[in-house]
Amino acid sequence: MKKISLIATSLLLGASVLVSPITQAHTASSDIVMDSENVFTTPIEKDFKSYPTSTPGSVSTLAVDYSGTYYQMATKKTYHNIDWSGSFSNGGKKDDSVSRKVTRTKFSSGKIGGEFETAVNWKLIQGKIGINGEKAWGKTDTVEVSLTWTIEGGTKTSIEYGSSAVKTTESIVKYNRGKLIKSTPVDAK
């Protein structure tokens, strides 16, 4: 029985390290109550939106006489990578605020070819999909910030915090005078 209570205490202490307490902006008589809170060790991906990747009626790449290395995109989807969420109720009549330390993940990951060609491939992908990555390819980092939210009186508010992200697939292709020389699969976030 003693072993079980030590494990429960350890789990409880571990959880308190991951989740910092709410700091209320108006501590004297705050009416805000935290209804729920989630810190995701594996962020939740949601709100996917797909984008067209080719122009209807465009000329086939087989008919174009060119040389070089390009990113041919098959899919492009934007989404939200949620690291933290919380729900707060303000039982008072006046607006009130809560402050919170939250973290989000900065990342670039997936498969884009061999190690020696990664830097070039990552630049091709960023240029084609129109983004600038926050991190170098294959790197992940977390950022902790303190944020304050105002909760309107007599309401319940849900808040999510994380990163906006892009997922893309297809191939890095190399052509010599219109002839395909090499194709490297891409599956990148």
Chain-wise SSE layout:
Layout: H1 2-18, E1 23-24, E2 32-51, E3 68-90, E4 96-107, E5 110-111, H2 118-129, E6 140-151, E7 155-176, E8 179-188
Structure characterization notes:
The chain is 15% helix and 54% strand. The protein is an alpha+beta fold and 189 residues long. A five-stranded antiparallel β-sheet has the order 2-3-7-8-5.
Q: Could you tell me the strand content as a percent range?
A: over 45%
Largest sheet: 5 strands, antiparallel
Broad shape: elongated
Order of helices and strands: HEEEEEHEEE
Mean pLDDT: 78
- Structural class per helix/strand content? alpha+beta
Distance between the termini: 47 Å
Q: Which stretches of 5+ consecutive residues score pLDDT under 50?
A: 1-28, 55-59
Question: Can I get a quick summary?
Answer:
With about 190 residues, the protein is an alpha+beta fold.
Write out key terms for the chains shown.
five-stranded antiparallel beta sheet, alpha+beta, 189 residues, elongated, three-stranded antiparallel beta sheet, disordered N terminus, single chain
